[in-house]
Amino acid sequence: MILINTARGGVIDERAVGRAGPVTCTAQAFDVWVSRPKPRRDLVEHPKVVALPHVGRRPLRGKAASAKSPIF
User: Fold this and answer.
1) 66: pLDDT confidence band, cut at 50, 70 and 90?
2) pTM of the predicted protein model
3) Alpha-carbon span 22 to 47, nearest angstrom
């Protein structure tokens, strides 16, 4: 199973995903987090998780800044 969340941070229970997700999922990708601006470190650092900055509803200047820097 591949888990992708690009909707809202609260749609997925991040604690449950942190406990069971890496075991049950082949891969996970997130660009939204409950704990913004710094997401859960255990998820971000997991080898099966792809963590991306969310760029929805940002002005062009904000999108450019996100493209130049990692999630933190």
Assistant:
1) low
2) 0.54
3) 9
Cα–Cα distance measured from residue 52 to residue 67, given in angstroms and rounded to the nearest whole number: 10
- Which residues, 6 or more positions from 31, have their beta carbon under 8 angstroms from its beta carbon? 5, 6, 51, 52, 53, 54, 55
Ranges of each domain in the chain = 2-68
Whether 30 and 49 have beta carbons less than 8 Å apart is answered as yes
Helix (H, G, I), strand (E, B) or coil at 69: coil
Q: Tell me the pLDDT tens digit for each residue of 4-31.
A: 777 777 787 777 777 766 567 778 777 7
